[in-house]
Every structure is written in structure tokens, then in C-alpha cells.
Amino acid sequence: MPQRLLGLALVFPALATIALLFAYPLAYSVVTAFQAEGAWTVANFSKAYELYRSDILFTFLIVGVSTLLIGIFSLAIGGYLTLGGSPAAVAVLRWLYRWPLFIPFIVAGQLMRTFLAKNGLMNNILTEVGLMTPIETVSFLDWRGIVIAFVWKQTPFVALLVAGAMASLDRSMIEAARNLGASRPRILVEILVPLVRQTLFVGLILSFVIMLSVLSVPLMINAQSPTMITANMAFRINAYGDYGVANALGLISYLMTGAVSWIYLRYGIEERGGGR
Amino acid sequence: MTLASLETASRWLVRAVLLALLAFAIFGPITNMLIWTVTEKWYFPHKLPLEYGFSFWQRVFAPRGGAIESLTNSILIACGTVLLSLAMAVPAGYALARLRLPMRGLILLCFLLPQAFPNLAVYINVARIFYGFGLNGTYYGVILVHTTHGLVYAVWIASAAFAAIDRELEEAARSIGAGPLRTFATISLPLAAPGIFASAIFVFLESLDEFTGTFFVGAPVVQTLPLLLYTSAAGGNYQIASITALILLVPSIAFMFVVERFIRADVLARIGR
After folding, report:
1. What is the ipTM of this complex?
2. Which residue, B150, B149, B113, B116, is CA-closest to A209?
3. pTM of the model
4. Which of A49, B36, B166, B199 is buried deepest, with most CB atoms within 10 A?
């Protein structure tokens, strides 16, 4: 089979890179999480729980709330792009929503750090318009700032996927529903959302994993307690060289991803069993 | 006014308000950053800067300002990452699209691995392993980390670009006597070039913007733009942080506007297949 061998030889360098520089360190992190002073132990986990249990919960809530909001906003954007009554408004929205798509997280972090601060542009405009007095202004640079930065940066990505999936659907079904007098919100929720669910979930899970890996946003917006475990991991390494606890927190972040993927797989299979 | 025209007017009002809110949410933070790049003096409770000017630009781009060094490093590393990724992704993409491979689906899935796990903990351990090989704080170490992350885009897009080529063109070249290598070099590669070029830009941008891997493997020796942005922001220097952010923002927004011209719909439809 010369062709098979040739094919494997051509794929080998790329595959070996992933194995050596991703799979191996990944396995190494899992093993190190269960080791302390050369022996197998769960001490790293009990220490991680003791020190960072509120941060673990905080991380899960921040990423969970962000994922939910990203889902809602991208469905709204995709829905309007597909069903919108005014071509002009659709064109404006299409031009507008994609701006943050490739903006790096660290830049998003810096933008929000200035925009959401107590004397940032947002509060300045709100007081200028008369919606607030300077004394009422608050800084959003806490968990809300992290959520806003995540949603701002990730919504265009999921909306792009969702809008693409909606655009490739058969329009005749939408037209039929419209002719029967269904309102547009109802068409969105009852027809479009079930049909693009697969794409939506893939986009949301990818966003969930990405947000769990981002170090720059929590460091720049809110590094005080409670913060995200990504910031804690960096702190354990830089301040103490404590790989055990850092890797234990890493394993917890893998487990969060695993839980979300499991929910997705289960949900997908259940629906297929339902005769669709 | 009739009832119908009143309804049309109110619809337009709702649309205009919602779009204006979205525009505020998207451009507000960007505007705030742009103001900071030309601010000389700005403190509470003033709503706008007291003095405007470009003195921070001069400071950032002065020989010891750090920007030139970081920019050069970032571009060198991104170019190295693109070259290394393409050198591996073009053969791999061709094999995945055109040759009979055992476990093809599984191989494609392997390249997704770095996207499927939160990668911060992985970078920590890459840094630890690299330490043993003397790769920490070197360009090579940072390029290797960025390449691992960029490979999924490079391989998947290259594979889709080769798969989108009409097989008959390659067969025609073979039938008039061109060897497999010559067919690849004169037919397949030029036809797949736009897709591969798009993946190269994407890998370049991902490397330019990468923070976490560089933070653990490169810092403090290899200073890139994202690291400069972080250190100046942490030091409370909003002007330098904003100028660095602007340098990183321009290529990402430019790419957002041109990406659809590079990746054609027929290539896009084949990604991951």
C-alpha cells in the first residue's frame, strides 16, 4: 500500500507536533495533578478546594452566564438577519455585529478596562445624557466586566455560525409559517432555533472552552478575589512554582469542559431517539 | 397620520434605537481606547481629556520605548509560525484531501485537540518541559507553541482547499504525462493557493495576538506586543496600553472585512469534512 504509507508520511510531522506539544503536556498535567513530593496523592485537590473553592464556583458561573448571554444575543442577531423586515436595517446589522470577531481577548480586556471604569466613557456619557449623576456611577470592573468582555468578544463568532446555518435553511418553510400568520419571534423560537441547534451548541461549547482558557481578561479586569481560576493558576506558578495545585485547577477546568460536552452529547442523542 | 404610517414610524424608531444601542456597545469601547491614544492629561472628574497630543506615540516608538522591539519580535514570531505551520499543513492537508488514509476522521479530529481543552494548564506544562530543553525564553519555543495552536486552522483549511479542486484537472495533467509531483506543483497547489493564503493570514493573526502561551514560555525574555500591552496596562499606563492595543486592533479588523474574499463558499463548505 504505497499510497497509504505516503499519506501517513505526509501527515506525520503535523500529527507528531500535536502529540509532542499538546497531548504529552496534557497528559503530564493530569499526572502532575495527582502527585506531590514524588508520591500519588489527592492533596493538590484538597488544597485547591480549600484555597480556591469560591473561585472555582465563580469561574463556572462567569463562563456559564457568558455562554448563556452569547447564545441569546447570537440567536437574536441571526434571527433578525434571517427574518428581518427591513433590508436596510438587516444590512446595517450585518455590517455592525462582526467588528469584534478577530479582536484579541487582551485588546478586548484593555478596551473594557477603560470603557467600564468609574470614570470611563460609558459612565461619562450616561451622566452627560442625564441618566445618572456622577455620584451614582459605579465601576463595572468586577465579574460584570469579565462577562461583558467575554460576551462582547465571543458573540460575533457564534452569531456568524448561527446566521450561516439559518441562511442555508429552506426558506419555503419560513414563508409557509408567515403565510399562516405566525409572528417572527414565534418563527424564530419554534422553527429556526430547533433547526440550527446543533450549530449553536458547537459554537457555544467552543466559546466555553475558549473562555476557560483566557488569562488576559481576568488579569486585566479583575485579578482580586474572587477571580477566575486561570488567574489563580498563573499565580500559583509565578509566585510559588506550585505545579501540583496549578495542575489540579487545570484538571478542574478540563472537567468543566467535559461536563458541558457530555450534556451536549446526551441532549443530541436524546433528540435523535425522539424520531427526528 | 394614518394608523398604518404610525405603525411604520414606530417600527423604525424601535429599529433605530436597538441598532444605536448595539453601535454604542461595539464602538464605545473602541472610541474610548482611541481617545486614550492621543491623551496627554485626563483625570477624574473630567469627562474628556484636558490635553491632546502625540507625545506618548513618540515615547512608545523611541528606541527604548519597547514598541519597536515588541513589534519586530511579534512579526518575526508570527512569520516563523506561518512558515512552520504551512510546511506541515500543506502536505498533511493534501494527504487528507486526496490520498487514501487509514483513520482519516480520527486524524482530522486530532488537530482539533488543542481547541477542545482549556489550554492554559497545557501551556504551564509545555513551559516546564521546554525548560529542560533550554527552549524557554527563546523565539523557537514561542514559535513551537504558536504553531501547535495554529495547526488546526492551517490543516483543516488546507485540506478543504485541496478537496475543493476539480479532480478532472489533476487527472488531465496526469494523462498528458505530468508526474505526481509536477501535477501537484503546477495544478493542485496554485488552485488551492487562495485558501492556503487565507489560512496563513489567520495563523499569522492568531500568533500576533497570542498571550497565554507567550506569557509562560517566552516572558520575560521574548517581549511581544500582547505582553507589552499587559505590562503597560498593569503599570497603569493607559496611553501606552491603548497605543499597543490599537496596533493589534488594526490588522484584526482589516482581516474581518476581507476574510470572505479569500475563503470562497465552496472551500468553507468543505472545512472539517
Report:
1. 0.87
2. B116
3. 0.90
4. B199
